[in-house]
Amino acid sequence: MKEFAYVRAGSVEEATSAYASHTGARYLAGGTNLVDLMKLGVEAPAALIDVTRLPLDTVEELPGGALRVGAMVRNSDLAAHPLVRDRYPALSQAVFAGASGQLRNAATTGGNLLQRTRCPYFQDLSKPCNKREPGSGCGARDGVHRDHAVLGHSAHCIATHPSDMAVALTALDGRVELAGPEGARSVAAADFHRLPGDRPEQDTEIRPGELVTGVVLPAATAGLPSAYRKARDRASYAFALASVAVVLRLEDGVVGHAGVAFGALAHRPWRARRAEEALLGAAPTRAAFEHAADLELDAAQPLRDNAYKVPLARNLAVDVLSRLTDTALTGRAS
Amino acid sequence: MTGSVGAPAERREGREKVSGTARYAAEFHSPGRAQAWPVPSRVARGRVTGVDTAAALAVPGVIAVLTHENAPRLAEPDDPTLALLQNARVPHRGWFVALVVAETLEAARAGAAAVRVTYDAEEHDVTLTASHPGVYVPEEANGGHPAVREQGDPDGAFGSSAARVDVAYRVPPLHNHPMEPHTSTARWEDGTLTVHTSSQGTGAVRAVLAGLFGLSRDRIVVTAEHVGGGFGSKGTPRPDVVLAAMAARETGRPVTVALPRRFLPAVVGHRAPTLHRLRLGAETDGRLVSLVHEVTTHTSRIKEFVEQAAVPARVMYAAPHTRTVHRVAALDVPSPSWMRAPGEAPGMYALESAMDELATELGIDPVELRVRNEPDVEPDSGRPFSSRHLVECLREGARRFGWTGRDPRPGVRRDGPLLLGTGVAAATYPVMVGPSTATARALPGGSFLVRINATDIGTGARTVLAQVGADALGVPLERIRIEVGSTELPSAPLAGGSSGTASWGWAVHDACAGLARRLAGHVGTLPGQGLEFRADTTGAADAESDFARHAFGAHFAEVAVDTVTGEVRVGRLLGVYAAGRILNARTARSQFVGGMTMGLGMALTEGSTMDAAFGDFTESDLASYHVPVHADVAGIEAHWLDEEDSRLNPMGSKGIGEIGIVGTAAAIGNAVHHATGVRLRELPLTPDRVLTGLLGRRT
To answer: Which residue intervals are annotated with compositional bias (Basic and acidic residues) in the record (chain B) (predicted)?
Structure first.
């Protein structure tokens, strides 16, 4: 195997400086995806900077009512956290919908955001993939692509982002906090992942050496009705065929706030801005939900074998919007 | 009799397995053991024009790189998939073109990545269609069944039938994917070859190795003490054992070849895709007049394997006019092979789905339709059945499931967004049995030692054979010791075709019964080495029977189909079996439930996708090849009838390892139709297909 250096960082500064001093380094957190990719040869880091000991493993309330989730909080702990369950149910539901119990125990919040696509061509060194090897081509476009993107894909890449968690963060207006050689900054979760364009090798807006230190859930969406729903091939341990996260506030009988994001339709969690605009101020009827979903999905460009994703995503959005409306109107979960 | 047989005795090796002390084939460490990693072909058809091993040999820890240019010459095997590294030909993608042997697994893998192979690639063809120009009718299908059987005038009778069903079904390629990938450790010492392998039968492994390496069998020892599942894919020797033996001989080191999961889809067999056309013609009362089942499947360029999916139609129903046909096309695909209930699983999916369509067409209850077509003798052969209690299974299942009073109308039961339905299908699996030997020895301390080269692939064979021995000797179960899983033991056939317990049990019964007779005539204390009796069932177990011998069963399923997503959830799955005498209630239930779970996977989640451009199967790990998880299996019940059949073997048992999968997929598919009114004829019933079907229903 390719030998690599291993550095265990005790602080964010130690981690970023270790990264800077090792060419070809990767941060290692739960390892549930990176280690697999190393076994497959997709990743061959020269150094692993272990960040699991960083003091980023707490969920804390911020002044003003926001919630910060440390990057090293394990998925299981995030999903089960009382404040998360209480204020951001979509996030808890999304994390529980992902992977398996064992994987959630190991995987971290930061690592979940940075996991790579499960496109089979990306994972197979014997096949072309522009994401893995820019310029080599895309095996999936004319190949096996039932699971691939219908929105925002490019001639270079049709991969989807596999995270459930990131879809909920996007709908909840979460932000991703980063620390790097040039200091700390934060990026809206909706803008953190990229569309592939002509640089599919770049999954996110993260800059070289930057480390995810946490995610922040805003006070504005705290306590709003929210929900996540995922369709999949089996009842557990399967990536989404399509999913949706919705945050909904009704005011005076109309939609006062709607946050809608789709998963498994694109190279990033797909914030459904057009649908949200159409919903704002509309009466919460099934017809309005269908209209909003159609407006958003009108941009879909399905491939040979994944056209089903469009009606599936539409159904999911309408279903979750309807259920949240019922809850808001009756005060009970339906 | 002490009554051990039938009792729910616990697995004898259970503690070793759950405590991690049971040793599998990769875990036989010996000094100097090396690890090897194969290099799979990247083209689907062509020739290797060069293998540059320099970079691989430069990887620290790499000991040797075997290629077709330097590997030991093997004798021509009967199984062409074992002619490894013998020539430059590439018959399919994933075929092994080199093997890197190294001090560690990591070095072997790095070495394999550094091997540079060049190919003269040719156009490949991996796409099966019913009208493929290469399709031909083989001489026979798997199991030695004739490819074609015909009685009467099936076309004419179909044409003039009052009710007709003419439908096509498709079952995708499926993979066995046992928990333990195929693995072997080999060691040569003084011209003797010792192999620890993960196999369903070490006798066949030894015979093949003897042939390939030109050794007499007494210079080879093969053991398979514990096997982490096989489901047919370990029924024959696989590349791992041949490569391990080659590499060990070439390097003079013990060598382990543990195939990575990703390599399995190409080299250890798969259930070939089957395209079915079913034509059922019936009277208005439901009695079949004509039954035509035609199957088209694929095989590889190097080995003809024809999934015998039309064979169960020769067993199931009385119809005066029948035709059953197998056709096959040789493509540039990996070689298909056995997977749990080859023939019966896909064949009964199609036949039992078509029967459901006929029931709907005629407005006859599907249980009743099957009862009306119950034959007096085996339809194809005319032989009487040794026992056949399909009707009783259907009736008992209907009673337990609460089938009576079922509203037959499809697509009318709603629970919010869910559509609810129930379905039924019959199951059958042939009784197979082979000759075996065994010894039983009475030891001075009062215990008994039974020795037989049976293989316990996770089924509980050790346990059930001890039960058979205990009863034949008339002693408590605790006094029986048993040794299995080595060619050093009395020879016995493989664990396959649901024949293991019948074949081995017969020999164990005879050995123990013989020993009991000898002991009855023995006077005084036992000699130091004890007293032994050896049994050989040759001539008895392999005698032609005048009877058609099959197990039967009935499956009932209740499903909820989510109209939002197209997801299908199976709320209840219930099977009732007539499989002769059940020898261990605990391990038998596990077999039935396991088979049903695998059938649930076949119905809803499992399938391998052939990538036409590259010529390989896309799903290569357990994250993408979806076997059911616990959350998919809500309620599952297995029951059996007390079936007595004296025409089988001394235990009165039929095989139970495979019948559980046989009718399950059809029962679930029929329930999905009952729920939705949509007839989906291609497996698996994944949300994309179901949702698309539901949307089509509305327009």
So the answer is: 9-18
Query: Cα separation of B644 and B140, whole Å?
Result: 33
Tell me if chain A has a CB within 8 Å of the CB of B688. yes
Tokens found for residue B63:
């000991």
Which of B10, B374, B658, B682 does the annotation list as catalytic?
A: B658
Between CA A190 and CA A101 the distance in angstroms is: 27
- Domain positions in chain A are 5-50, 225-330
- B609, B631, B691: residue with CB nearest A235: B631
ipTM for the assembly: 0.97
pLDDT band for A49, please (50, 70, 90 cuts). Answer: very high
- For the purposes of burial, counting CB atoms within 10 Å of the CB of B287, is it exposed (0-12), middle (13-18) or buried (19 or more)? middle
Confidence of residue B665 (pLDDT cuts 50, 70, 90): very high
**Rounded to 10 degrees, what is the CA torsion of A200, A205, A207, A210?**
-120
- Residue B23's region, left for phi above 0, alpha for psi from -120 to 50, else beta, is beta
CATH for A5-50 (3.40.50, 2.60.120, 3.30.70, 3.30.43) = 3.30.43
pLDDT digits (tens, 9 = 90+) for B189-238: 999 999 999 999 999 999 999 999 999 999 999 999 999 999 999 999 99
Give pLDDT, residue A2: 79
Among B106, B612, B626, whose Cβ lies nearest the Cβ of A1? B106
Is B140-174+271-431+547-698 assigned to CATH 3.40.50.720? no
Asked if B140-174+271-431+547-698 and B434-536 have one fold, the answer is yes
Instruction: Tell me which CATH code domain B434-536 carries.
Output: 3.30.365.10
Q: Which residue has the tokens 């177990």?
A: B541
Q: What is the pLDDT of residue A1?
A: 63
| A332 pLDDT higher than 80 | no
Residue B503 has what DSSP assignment?
H
Which residues are within 8 A (CB) of B698 and not within 5 positions of it... i.e. 6 or more apart? none
| Domain edges within chain B | 33-43+45-123+177-267, 140-174+271-431+547-698, 434-536
**Strands (DSSP E) found in B260-346:** 274-282, 288-299, 321-330
Q: State the smallest CA–CA distance between residue A98 and chain B in angstroms.
A: 12
- A230-240 burial, b if ≥16 CB within 10 A, otherwise e? bbbbbbbbbbb
* Terminal CA-CA length for chain A: 53
The verdict on B644 touching A (C-beta cutoff 8 Å) is no
Whole-number Cα distances in Å, B201 to A32, A195, A202, B183, B247: 36, 53, 50, 14, 22
**Residue from B263, B564, B569, B616 whose CB has the most chain A CBs within 10 Å, to mutate:** B564
Going by pLDDT thresholds of 50, 70 and 90, the confidence category of residue A334 is very low
Q: Distance between CA atoms of B621 and B610, rounded to whole angstroms?
A: 15
- Please, which pLDDT band fits residue A329 given cuts at 50, 70 and 90? confident
pTM value surpassing 0.90: yes
Residues 6+ apart with CB under 8 A from B439: B450, B451, B452, B490, B511, B532, B533, B534, B535
CA distance B442 to B527: 10
Mean per-residue pLDDT over chain B, rounded: 97
Strands A59-61 and A47-50: unpaired
**CATH fit for domain A225-330, picks 2.60.120.560, 3.40.50.720, 2.30.42.10, 3.30.390.50:** 3.30.390.50
Distance of CA A39 to the CA centre of its chain: 24
Residue B27 annotated to the active site: no
CATH 3.40.190.10 fits domain B33-43+45-123+177-267: no
Candidates B419, B565, B602: best to mutate against A (most CBs of A within 10 A) is B565
